[in-house]
Amino acid sequence: MFLLGKFISTFRPSIRYPIFVYSRKPLSTSYVLKDSFVDEEGNEDILNNFRALSDEIFQPITGGRQAFIVQPHIKWGPKKKRDTTPELQMEESVSLIKTLSDWTVEGKEIVPLYSFDDASFFGSGKLDELKLKISLNRKISALFISVNMLKPLQHKVLEDFFGLPVYDRYLIVMQIFREHAFTAEAKLQISLAELPYLYSRMNHVHSASLQRIGDAASRISGTTIHTPPDTRKLILHKYEKKLKVSLEKLEKNRSTFRRKRKTQNFPVVAVVGYTNAGKTSLIRSLTGSNKLVPRDFLFATLDVTFHMAQLPCNLKLFYVDTIGFISDVPTHLIEPFRVTLADAMNADLVIHVQDVSHPDWLFQRDRVIETLESLDIEKKLLHHVIPVANKIDLLPSNHGLTIPDSTNQISCITGHGINSLAHRIQKEIIQTTGRAHLVIRAKTGGEEWQWLHSEATVTKAQADPKNDNYSLLSVLITEKVLDAFKRIFIHNYVRK
After folding, report:
1. I need a surface site. Which of 26, 28, 138, 142 has the fewest CB within 10 A?
2. pLDDT one-digit tens code per residue, 331-367
3. Which residue ranges does the record assign to the Hflx-type G domain (predicted)?
4. What's this model's pTM, rounded to 2 decimal places?
5. Contact 277, 362 (CB under 8 A)
6. Packing angle between helix 43-57 and helix 207-221, nearest 10 degrees?
């Protein structure tokens, strides 16, 4: 909330962004290209021109879709996935579709291929077979090819052949992001994540659409657009420039917030995991907060949020809830979220939540580890990761899973293992933040006594057996705070 007021007043495109689906169906030309689209300062003009262009390429969704899912997989070779199965991949593809409001699955098929590089993606025989199956069900209104991102030519060929809008994982995940984005930060980052897809499709607009754009610009501005491709790129560049200015402001505000947080000496624990692994549920269990309402669907959390809690030793800290990871999406889809993920990258400790009730949990675990290693995280932080096996209450007693001893087994529903995990977090945090455990003698209620309660963590207080006017305070204290204490007070202390 520290950012919203200023953010909304300076940049409206991040609040109202267009919702896109790739389509080449004829659309209404009731759009406006203003004569000031070259105006560097006109945010609304830039947004209007951007919408005019994007509406010629993307069709906003009104209502849901009835999807036929195709789950392709490589038969053999170096690109064959050996740590999962096509059936498990199909289950995730179905979950993605069901996450979208008013979307249903009307059919599905697993298709083995030698590669994903063919111009038509599938061979001619498989194309005809799929078209026949789809034609037999008139409810089907969309085709979902579950690969990270179709090439523009493949997209065009498939839509022309099937006569239906075609989606890849990039488009489906973007649709989910838009449905679950509520804050200005999330909407800004989603808008940035859309741009690479828009750039890749710029050269695949029908010439008739380009002519309509040029005619509209001529009517409104009194000028002629001689090079439509350059005009399209100019509009996108201007929109991207405004987005990046706002992203820089967001990054600056986030950095300021991180500096303020560090001055408070509160440790930070980042909670990461595959989407829907139970990150929010775990934070709710560790904080005891009823304000956190976990939601049982993919990408329920798009914003990085902070939640204060207290460890068994009374040490206060922040748990950071982060966006969930998922496999088979282009890396630049996650790139815009690096600003807010930086809060997790600057943590003192990482908790990796794993849904061990999921049949593909090992595959999901490895994808999260790969993603963490690809981010700009200090190597030492990667050595301070607590693996957590969540949802063990959903496992049968004879599950037969091999869960490493270093992994805490918990259930956020029954509370099993939560207390043990909290003590492990406490031990790791004390170690990673370099806190010393000391016993300091201070006059009860005196300046030193009050200062230590304010600036350090008092884990235990007991009367001094030699003098009832004094207390022996067991404290957790950082080196920086201890140095400040020494400068302010002359006092004796002993290491515990």
Report:
1. 28
2. 666 666 666 666 667 789 999 999 999 988 999 999 8
3. 267-396
4. 0.74
5. no
6. 150
